[in-house]
Amino acid sequence: MKTENRKTEIVRVAAHLFKEKGYSAVTMRDLAKTMGIKAASLYNHIESKQSILQDIIVSIAEEFTQGMSSILAESSNSIDKLNKIISLHVTIASKNADGMAALNTDWMHLEDKLNYYLDLRNSYEENFRKIIQAGIDNNEIKNENVEVILFSLLSTLRSLYLWIPKKENLNEAQLASSLSHILIKGINT
Amino acid sequence: MKTENRKTEIVRVAAHLFKEKGYSAVTMRDLAKTMGIKAASLYNHIESKQSILQDIIVSIAEEFTQGMSSILAESSNSIDKLNKIISLHVTIASKNADGMAALNTDWMHLEDKLNYYLDLRNSYEENFRKIIQAGIDNNEIKNENVEVILFSLLSTLRSLYLWIPKKENLNEAQLASSLSHILIKGINT
DNA sequence: GTCTATAAAAAGATAGAC
DNA sequence: GTCTATCTTTTTATAGAC
User: Which residues of chain B have a CB within 8 Å of the CB of A181?
Assistant: First the structure.
């Protein structure tokens, strides 16, 4: 469409506002004001507030799904797979911290696409869990509770969006490397 | 006051709703319906919607501040202190998962108490950072980037509220112990 | 593509009866 | 302590002029 660029801009600005206050607390007037136009004018480019949220969340969720798919297709060992998952999260959170915020904190406000998002998320977590379990089975990973390991890793990776924008002096490769050491090898001397 | 018990109940139910949809998306009518009364009746017990959020967040933030204070007062080594911080988070998240959700995701909707909350949070993080740095200085903790270690630990601990309610078969002591092993000693064999 | 005007619904909160 | 009724403001979204 002709208005695709303007629409992309609206979605990007909306994601930024959603990160600051959350989807429900951001009004179409807030968004319009930031864009420098009136609220009614937004509707020439987007269908609804809800459609903006869908655009943001679904595109990132699919990006994670595709990333996991690539990782699974490779024949590397479990620790290699975990390192690739860490890099995947660092890359996506670096590129789109605002969108990651919406995915993490506003997914429950999805309407039509809620079940689709939940399916993608459950699949992702299940694949992650299997990688950890395989690592335990072949003695690459300590025999701790799988759910606690999964929770611990995912919590850190899912929070990257909060933290990456504040630490711009660390590049993606350095951050992924540092995270890999800390998450996998621990912090104890 | 005579209505203190009813007020406590309202705050508790509100925290539960806030966890599901966030502060902004929960209406006074939603809250009233869950309580089995009309919205207007709520105002006989609470001052405003905002005062409910304040009650939830400030009490937990002060609990963390007090817990950190106790930990600092002890003369244990850095790893001991980290383990006590882990237990502190497990205890509070187990006791009040709903309130932890509000503290983590709705603090930005605080009005009068926003700066007070931010001061407590900054203090907490600064104390946490100093414990990690001291551990690095005396060779208890690996010489990795302090900010990445702090971020990684805090991300996991702050997300406990999402996860604890789903895993009721793990008691607090077991969870704290398992988390301690994973976060401090890593998962690599 | 943006505007003004406005519709229709939903929000937080209060007044006063019971 | 809860109700009905209502006020005031705010919200998403549409219609139609420019």
Answer: 142, 144
Report which of B67, B52, B69, B68 is spatially closest to residue B9, judged by C-alpha positions. Answer: B52
CATH number given to A50-185: 1.10.357.10
pLDDT tens digit sequence for A30-67: 999 999 999 999 999 999 999 999 999 999 999 999 99
Interior angle at CA B92, CA A167 and CA B122, nearest 5 = 30
Q: What pLDDT digit, counting tens, does each position of B92-137 carry?
A: 999 999 999 999 999 999 999 999 999 999 999 999 999 999 999 9
Distance CA B48, CA B43 (A): 7
pTM attached to this predicted model: 0.97
Residue boundaries of the structural domains of chain B: 49-185
DSSP track, A71-96: HHHS---HHHHHHHHHHHHHHHHHH-
Measured between alpha carbons, how far is A106 from B106 in angstroms, rounded to an integer? 12
**Residues of chain B with C-beta less than 8 angstroms from the C-beta of A152:** 156, 179, 182-183
**CA B157 to chain CA mean position, Å:** 8
Q: Do A163 and B149 touch (CB under 8 A)?
A: no
Fold of B49-185: Tetracycline Repressor; domain 2 (1.10.357)
